[in-house]
Amino acid sequence: MLTLKPTALSSFSSSNPIPYLFKPLHKPYHPLSPKPSSFPIIKSILQYNRKPQLAGTTPRVVVITSGKGGVGKTTTTANLGISLARHGFSVVAIDADVGLRNLDLLLGLENRVNYTALEVLNGDCRLDQALVRDKRWSNFELLCISKPRSKLPLGFGGKALIWLVDALKHRNEGCPDFIIIDCPAGIDAGFITAITPANEAVLVTTPDITSLRDADRVTGLLECDGIKDIKMIVNRVRTDMIKGEDMMSVLDVQEMLGLALLGVIPEDTEVIRSTNRGYPLVLNKPPTLAGLAFEQAAWRLVEQDSMTAVMVEEQPKKRGLLEYYYFFKYGK
Ligand SMILES: Nc1ncnc2c1ncn2[C@@H]1O[C@H](COP(=O)(O)OP(=O)(O)O)[C@@H](O)[C@H]1O
Ligand SMILES: [Mg+2]
């Protein structure tokens, strides 16, 4: 019997560097989805070898947000940041999760954070002393707002973060291409502070209703704040669960939130391993599925591109004689 099965991990886009990474197992493609080109693999290799073209004006100040905690904001910040640096762009990642900072851990830079942005604002150190340069990619720097377990100080708000972003723009080293802000969970003061200097947002969500409701609320707040360029990353996607109709497909998520899709990241145990090792997934050799998906998302971020989630029809199952017998007898 021909059944319609949603699949999340299929995308084709003119500038998609590895268009077949998420090629679904079943054909044919949805009639509305663009047809793949005749030499997709060659095309993808060529695209992967070229440098993505930076769209928009620099610095691109991007906030990585979600509303709900634990959906993968910090993982996304670390992997997008390192990917962008690998493509040759200068990146400053700001950990704005005051009190619960962990971006330094994911990047393996925790032992090198001597000063924080609060000390810069208090006049206790210079900005360049608070910036931690990555040893692997010298064009990647980390700025932590505060020490772990400290509370958001009363005087620290959106204006202070705007001041910091301005200071980063006018450094002697030159203006960075990307300033990525890792936003805290929730929609209170910390969230408002983190989104204030941003002109674009990446909303991270998982395909479950609690995360989607929070993402929807956050989208409204971002729009109220004047951030119109909002793209989403759907994280921790499991095709087996989607096929079993136990998980929402990316197409469903996209229809519910109505946002442009920047990337789809599969659930991958390597993410947890890389988190614990302080070694971002995109640096893994050989690359993992989730690492490649982050790499693609970074590529789209640079070019202000997006991907499409499509519905895929499953091919009719070939039946043996016994199956036909059961089909006619029991109708399945
Ligand atoms: N695609 C994924 N597959 C498996 N585990 C993931 C994935 N994305 C995130 N995680 C795990 O989820 C946990 C929370 O991620 P984190 O980035 O800290 O979330 P947040 O910053 O939104 O609170 C971490 O342990 C991380 O390793
Ligand atoms: Mg976090």
Written description of the protein model:
- The protein is α/β, with parallel strands linked by helices and 332 residues long.
- It has a single domain, classed as Rossmann fold (3-Layer(aba) Sandwich), CATH 3.40.50.
- Helix content is 36%, strand content 16%.
- The protein is built from 13 helices and 10 strands.
- The strands form 2 sheets. Strands 4-5-3-6-2-7-8-9 form an 8-stranded mixed β-sheet, sandwiched between helices.
- Helix 2 (73-86) crosses helix 12 and helix 6 (158-169) packs parallel to helix 7.
- The longest helix has 16 residues, at 209-224.
- The termini are close together.
- One of its GO terms (cellular component) is cytoplasmic side of plasma membrane.
- This is CobQ/CobB/MinD/ParA nucleotide binding domain-containing protein.
- InterPro entries: CobQ/CobB/MinD/ParA_Nub-bd_dom, MinD, P-loop_NTPase, ParA/MinD_ATPase.
